[in-house]
UniProtKB/TrEMBL annotation:
S-adenosyl-L-methionine binds at residues 114, 134-139. This is tRNA (guanine-N(1)-)-methyltransferase. It is found in: Cytoplasm. One of its GO terms (biological process) is methylation. It catalyses: guanosine(37) in tRNA + S-adenosyl-L-methionine = N(1)-methylguanosine(37) in tRNA + S-adenosyl-L-homocysteine + H(+). It comes from Roseateles asaccharophilus.
Amino acid sequence: MRFDILTIFPELFAPHLMHGVTRRAFESRQVDVRLWPLRDFAEDNYRRVDDRPYGGGPGMVMLAEPLDKALAAVKADRGENQPAVIHFTPTGARIDQARVQELAAGPGAILLCGRYEGIDQRVLDRHVTLELSLGDFVLSGGELPALALLDAVARLQDGVLGDAQSHQQDSFSDGLLDCPHYSRPEVLPDGREVPAVLMSGHHADIKRWRRERSLAVTAARRPDLIGAARAAGLLSKADEAFLAKL
């Protein structure tokens, strides 16, 4: 899959693409990331990509013409394979695991990273097919949401994580939050211990404990996910019996 990123700060992406376990996806081009510096498409000697908004008000607006030219170049380079054009904005749909899984199984996308007060609306009206948001807060630009999306998509690719089952046990993979995890030592100096069931070697008991802890954490912190999982038929009779005891 291929992600084309339109940004005025391409240098923000290099560290992420070269470090961490997800770098395997980028180095192998399983997730092919191509950066398009927007200032390269500016018309004047100052490489300006923003100007004051019509109607007055604070801040600056990203200009339509450099963005139109950059998008035209990206689309020409991609040829017939034209994916979604994604704009990151607080008004967009919330990014969730279902959306990530959908993108991870597709051809990629063109990621439009806005800055300042926003992008000339005519660009959005003409080109953007999907608007996404990290949450109900405001960031300085679209680069951080783009990086988050790339990371989430990359870790779902075959061979990227050391254990192929790792992402299958992540939070949201089955509609619930993940259970707690423990490692060595068995007992910390202050006496805190690993739950005995995890030391038992009894796989069925461990599986049940993890499921119940997942249910308990989700019910306490994100009860809305319990309702969604129930509506989607993801809860078993044993799950419902356990939840009734909480």
